[in-house]
Design goal:
The structure is a single chain. By secondary structure, this protein is of the alpha+beta class. The protein has a single domain, classed as Acetoacetate decarboxylase-like (Beta Barrel). Helices cover 16% and strands 45% of the residues. It has 6 helices and 18 strands. It has helices at 3-15, 81-87, 97-103, 170-178, 224-231, 296-300; strands at residues 25-29, 33-37, 50-52, 66-80, 92-93, 113-128, 138-150, 156-161, 165-167, 183-185, 190-195, 198-203, 207-218, 234-237, 245-248, 250-268, 271-274, 280-290. It has an 18-stranded mixed β-sheet that branches. Strand 14 (234-237) and strand 15 form a beta hairpin. The longest helix is centred in the first third of the chain and has 13 residues, at 3-15.
Length: 305
């Protein structure tokens, strides 16, 4: 690939407005589920059948293409399993309780609801690693579900599924569509600060969220649910008519992590989820690198037939 073409390709990736959405980590799973390991250390998994590698600080499997900074409020909430099953595409399923207990220890499991992450991020200094040209700052709202991806070869992989992202950046959405990322442009998105520790986001009729950062409640690292969410490969399905499964790897380097309080309501495909006393929120300021999106054969090292 020529330098000019490679630079153009990198710029298109940048236009996708990519935030950190996944880290691969290597692990052997005796019961059939592969956990792909990466630079964020998800910690030892307390399950006799699983040997999870402690991989903090290791190099990514794939060459980073994009780097940047995010300041995010993240929430662990619950989504009705019936609604989630109805919207999951082929090859993706809800993990069973044994898998969730092994890889998300400490997370409360419910019979009718599945835990997931909502992420509200302000992205800055996002640039490709060749031209190092920063894109305009952006707001990105992301929704991430633990799933099991079953490859055509029968291999199963614990992943983090992103059904949709909301952006206020038109260029970010255009680039995302070019690469098959499922992004929605919401120019009507509003956001702001009510003080140095309070932030809010609003898309009328879709989502309302506000957070207060607890600066006096600093944490040494991301809580396990968020750490494992970022430790999985991220997967999304591109828009029709040529729907395809897309994976990508990222590395996040948290600089600040604190507890936070949350109030939110999200309406998606007729299902509304809301904050409660049981939802958990944190604030994190982190830098990240990210690979180019790729298909499952490339990500998981499966040879093409």
């Amino acid at each position: 690939m020529s330098c000019d073409l490679r630079a153009l390709t990198n710029q298109l990736v940048l236009l996708a407005g990519m935030s950190a959405m996944g880290v691969a980590c290597d692990a052997d799973v005796d019961e059939g589920i592969d956990v792909d390991a990466g630079p964020v250390d998800a910690g030892p998994v307390e399950a006799g059948s699983v040997d999870a590698e402690e991989s903090g600080g290791e190099e990514p499997r794939f060459e980073p293409l994009v780097a940047g900074n995010n300041t995010c409020l993240m929430v662990q909430a619950y989504f009705p399993k019936t609604s989630l099953n109805a919207m999951l595409p082929n090859h993706l399923t809800i993990p069973d309780d044994a898998t969730m207990t092994a890889f998300y220890p400490g997370t409360q499991l419910r019979a009718d609801e599945h835990p997931f992450m909502l992420s509200f991020c302000h992205g800055s200094e996002i640039h490709d690693l060749i031209t190092e040209t920063n894109l305009p700052e952006q707001e990105e709202l992301m929704f991430v579900f633990p799933v099991v991806y079953t490859h055509d070869d029968g291999g199963t992989h614990l992943c983090s599924y992103v059904p949709v992202l909301y952006l206020d950046s038109e260029k970010g959405v255009e680039g995302g569509l070019f690469y098959g990322l499922r992004k929605e442009f919401h120019p009507e998105m509003m956001h702001g600060d009510d003080g140095p520790t309070s932030r809010w986001w609003s898309i009328e009729g879709i989502i309302e969220a506000s957070f207060v950062m607890q600066a006096n409640e600093a944490l040494a690292e991301l809580p396990n649910f968020f750490k494992r969410t970022f430790a999985n490969p991220f997967v999304t399905i591109s828009y029709p008519p040529e729907s395809k499964t897309v994976f990508y790897e990222a590395t996040v380097f948290p600089d600040i992590v604190t507890n936070a309080t949350d109030v939110f309501s999200w309406n998606y495909n007729g299902t509304t989820v809301q904050s409660s006393e049981e939802t958990q929120a944190v604030y994190s300021d982190y830098s990240f690198t990210m690979s180019a999106p790729m298909d499952g054969n490339t990500y998981f090292g499966v040879a093409d037939d």
